[in-house]
Amino acid sequence: RADTPNRNKRIYNRPVLDKALNEYFEKIREKKAFSELDHPMGDEANVVSLKNVCQAIKDAYWKGNEIRGDVEILNTPSGNIVKEILLAGYRVGQSSRGLGSVNPLREGEDDLVEVQDDFEFLTLADCVSDPSTHNADMIIGESYRPISQPNKVDSLIRDLICTLGGQCCLK
70-103: per-residue pLDDT in tens? Predict the structure, then answer.
């Protein structure tokens, strides 16, 4: 959300976010725009790790002062966790992750900092439990298609695992 302090006491001005979003579109076009389940910590925070990917970012756009996007939850271990949380009726937050410098905005007043124009997105939307931007939750859109019946490949894999393993614990 542009021009509004978040819970991390950062303000991202619209021109800064515009520039970063325009640069991020290259990843979207190349089908290299992914996000992770939870923000990684330490040195791992500076890269999106494919082993932790939960969704692909398919598009991004402005709606008012907010960056919105379309994502596809992937059939990965992390993506399946996100799917199950959503299917159970719970909320999943979305939180961008990026790199850049900050400057104090108003010294002594709430310790707010302003993100500078060297900011770049690593990802637009990691799936998190408590996003720093207020009300930044996933919204299941019109193209959401729950799988009510397993497809033939799923059934074959399930049958193979059940036969070879001697017991079946997959639905």
Answer: 999 999 999 999 999 988 888 898 989 999 999 9
Q: Coil, helix or strand for 135?
A: coil
* pLDDT per residue as tens digits for the range 130-166: 767 766 666 665 454 444 445 556 566 655 555 555 5
Q: Any idea of the CA torsion for 141, 83, 125, 93, to the nearest 10 degrees?
A: 90
Q: What is the pLDDT of residues 52-73, one digit of tens each?
A: 999 999 999 999 998 988 999 9
- Residue 99 tokens read as 């790199």
128 vs 36: CA distance, rounded Å: 9
- Biggest CA–CA distance in the chain, Å, is 67
From CA 36, how far away is CA 34, in angstroms rounded? 7
Pairwise pLDDT comparison (110 vs 101), residue with the higher score: 101
For residue 84, what are its two tokens? 């199950």
Picking from 67, 65, 77, 70, the residue whose alpha carbon sits closest to that of residue 28 is 70
What torsion, rounded to 10 degrees, do the Cα atoms 134, 66, 145, 85 define? -20
- Amino acid (one-letter) located at 138: M
**Exposure of 105 by Cβ count < 10 A (0-12 exposed, 13-18 middle, 19+ buried)?**
middle
> Which two structure tokens, joined as six digits, stand for 10?
């950062």
